[in-house]
Amino acid sequence: MTENKHIEAIIRSLPEEPGVYQYFDADGKILYVGKAKSLKKRVSSYFTKEHDSSRLRLLVKKIVDIKTIKVNTEMDALLLENNLIKTFQPRYNVNLKDDKTYPWVVIKKERFPRIFYTRKVIKDGSEYLGPFANVMSLRALLDLIQQLYTLRTCSLDLSPKNIESNKYRPCLEFHIGRCKAPCVNKQSEEEYNKHVTQVKLLLKGNLNAVIRDLKEEMNALASNLEFEKAQEHKTKIDLLERYEGKSLIVNPSITDAEVYGFYSSPTSAFVNYFKVTNGAIIQGQTIELQKKLEETDEELLVFAIHEFRQRFNSTSKEILLPFDINFVFPDVEISVPKIGDKKKLIELSEKNAETYAKEKEKQQAITDPENSISRVMQQMMKDLRMKEEPRRIECFDNSNIQGAHAVSAMSVFINGKPAKKEYRHFNVKTVEGPDDFATMEEVIFRRYSRVITDNLEMPQLIVIDGGKGQLGAAINSLEKLGLMGKVAIVGIAKRLEEIYYPGDSVPLYIDKRSESLRILQHARDEVHRFGITHHRSKRSRETIKTELSEIKGVSERTANKLLVHFKSVKEIKTAQLGELISVVGKSKGEMIYTYFKQKPVE
User: Residues with Cβ < 8 Å from 380, sequence gap 6 or more?
Assistant: First the structure.
């Protein structure tokens, strides 16, 4: 328990009931707001547990006072927590990030209401529907509505007094058929409001109800022999059915549901929301929740669900989630689908959340590269269970063909990027024959004995291209040098991308989509490419030198001089005598010229 007697006394007196707790610093400023199913258990856990997060330890250190508000249910606690966070924006709480102001459709509170889209919500009694994530789709829908219902677009005051006094004249919109001129009493308020009701249904995604009503009216008009008006209704029905065909249809049996996708990074959680009505996705939006303490995925998802339901004023009775939550939303059925169309909806929503996160990462890498690097390094540290960020990674691989021309290579990555000037080759000196383990042991010992001797920068992570055998050989050398435990080392096996750790026979499997695995694969691919290139070059040089050294009197120095000038043995074979003499002198030039003239060119 804490040494602060005041805090200890508060904790002892807390009830085992749901509520909201607020932490305050010495200046009386709110540090953090949280909700709890049991105030006593939740608050005391901050002061009785060891926390891995330095940020959480700092928060606990700053707390000098605690205030709580008891509520009846956990749902009430969530509502109150959300409101307090928005009001006070405490430093240690989740930050809700929205890059865009999404448009709404407003139905103005006035006679003959105008309907248009806006990005500002004004509390003037008007009705707002939305928000809508796709402005282009919204505009297309509003154009369709204008074709169907010819609503007014002017801002005239259409009071009964102004209309009866003939204050206005029909404008161009009336003459081109885009408005029925209620301003001069050519359209009744009852008919206009009926159209507004149908527009509301359309904006809420309920196209089927509108089409059904139009068909009933069309049949009634046709029965009364009003064929021209019936044809107008038929045209509207055709427009609506074509529009419905362009919607993302999921399954008509899903009549009213919310779908949530979740994607987590070290610093943020991204939650995507879909509204599904009558089998079609009619709304979609993604938000970012910046993590401040060690919030669980469940806590973040619950927070996001409440935020979206409040934001969209949602009354859906069905919620589809990617994982289960231990929280009850009243009168709502929550499910985690495993198969079928509902599962596909979850996958689509998760893909949207991940895409949004990746786009944010790319933008951050451009605008704030240092912060982007820190994020990646933090993720690698977490994924690879390291104690420090792997700012410098050195990766090793061996190359040989049937034991001949054995070489090893090292690639270097700094801050997750290749540092090609620091790549190194190693010609194996002590190993005879094809012994991959002994080769790795020699190269690791040579590399890090030199790092120690020359006081070079030590990597935070050593990566060995290979499984347990190669890793064990590398560990032998680190133990001889006294470096085990001072630098992290892992092996990466090619077949299933397993990550092996010292002393652990069970490999770690990192998420195939993670940036951590991508960097390790890139380092492995780079060292392989670099090693193979050097191996081929060495083998080629030795083959060439062997051919030239067959000429009696031609030393390695002479062979090198010829290769530098002529670039290849083929060019040497076809060279003129005078050119050979100019490079290596008269005696050797004549000797080489005569040798190749007697030997046919391949």
Answer: 386, 389, 390, 416, 515, 516, 519
Closest Cα to residue 39, out of 19, 55, 10?
19
CATH number, domain containing residue 81: 3.40.1440.10
Q: What is the pLDDT of residue 403?
A: 46
Q: Which residue has the tokens 């008006």?
A: 229
In this structure, are 513 and 566 located in the same domain?
no
SS3 assignment, position 333: strand
Final residue in a domain of this structure, among 509, 537, 565 = 537
| Mean pLDDT for back-to-back runs of 10 residues, the chain (602 residues) | 75 86 90 90 88 84 88 78 81 72 83 88 82 68 79 89 89 87 90 88 74 85 86 79 56 81 86 81 81 86 90 88 90 90 87 83 74 84 89 87 65 93 84 78 93 93 89 93 91 81 82 82 88 60 58 75 75 84 85 75 47
* Structural domain that includes position 471: 383-537
Whether residue 212 sits in one domain with residue 146: yes
Question: Rounded to 5 degrees, what angle do the CA atoms 422, 428, 432 make?
Answer: 165
Same domain, 149 and 84: no
Task: Concatenate the DSSP letters of all residues of 57-78 into one string.
Answer: HHHHHH--EEEEEE-SSHHHHH
Number of domains in the chain: 5
Query: Looking at the structure, do residues 229 and 267 belong to the same domain, yes or no?
Result: no
* CA angle (266 as vertex; 292, 326 as ends), nearest 5: 70
Q: What is the CA radius of gyration of the chain?
A: 37
Structure tokens at 386: 């390291």
DSSP string, 106-143: EE-SSSS--EEEES----SS-EEE---S-HHHHHHHHH
Q: What's the pLDDT at 599? A: 64
pLDDT of residue 2: 57
| pTM higher than 0.70 | no
CA distances from 574 to 1, 7, 298, 300 (A): 89, 93, 76, 75
